[in-house]
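Example (one chain per record):
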Amino acid sequence: MNIHRAACLSLIAGLSMLAAGEAAAVLGHDEAAAWRLLNQLRSDPRSSTFAITAHIQAGNAGFGTYSPRIGNFDWAHATGRMAATRPLPLDAQLNAIARALLAKQQDPPERKPIDVTALLAGAGRQAGDAVLALQSPPSPSLPIAFARAMLRINGIRTSTSRDSATFDAARVLDPVWTEAGVACRTSPAGVAVAFILGSSPAGRAVSGVVYQDEDRDGACSPGEGMAGAEVRIGELRTTTSAGGIWMLRLPAAGPATVAFATRDGSAQRPLAEDAAIADWSVPLQADCTQADRLLAAVTAAGGEQARMRARVQLLLGTRSARIDDDRRARV
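Predicted structure:
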């Protein structure tokens, strides 16, 4: 029994690493930004609504031949009744379905379900798996493409499902979804985005992003993702994509520790039993240099008053610094 279980775990680990490796080539900064928008909407619908409305106001003037235009009321009405729910990790199979959906059709059908049965099978999913497919037509910017996808939801399991298409973006916040896939495509006509929301068939999907917080806003902004970082959970390993995204599938539930490593440092982050996302803000070299200088000043200070002043300067100078765990512990 133990040998059989070990073999199963090894197979799951191998498939997880293979899928993550394939994803590394296609998950860029646009996909990272689209994923962030999705999880902002799920975790804080009200703030997300304000942010998307600002983009709509700025972008509607440039719509040109894009149709239909989005009004502020359309978006606010669709999202105003939403209740927050958990953010979703990315899954390699659902990413593949999202990419295939964008490649299959230029524009999503109006108020009609998208038949994703064949795409599910092609990505290794069961044809009967419940999924929610969202796709935007080409749009002036990624936030507007995101809003248009949310307002053009095309439900579904199969084309014969009794579930009907709707413009109610609240379905995106259904807690039944446990993972997501995302794909973006930029062309002369604009940027299009596709999302596939689904439920885990087996194991536990976990993911995150490794980034350098250059604008110091506490989140991964467009272009900040770091490619090639190593991510490890137990025996499972992967590397981050061009957009800084990593994905793994754990064979079982339970708490875990995510270990990150780059050429310039490493860190560990706990992953609670009910959590599915772990990010790492990579230390900024300038902040580390500043922290080293202030730590050295504390050590060199002579007398209690001088040492106290140096400690205050250390705390103030590193309060919002992006430094590694070892330096933070010394501070």
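Caption: The first strand starts at residue 131 and ends at 135.
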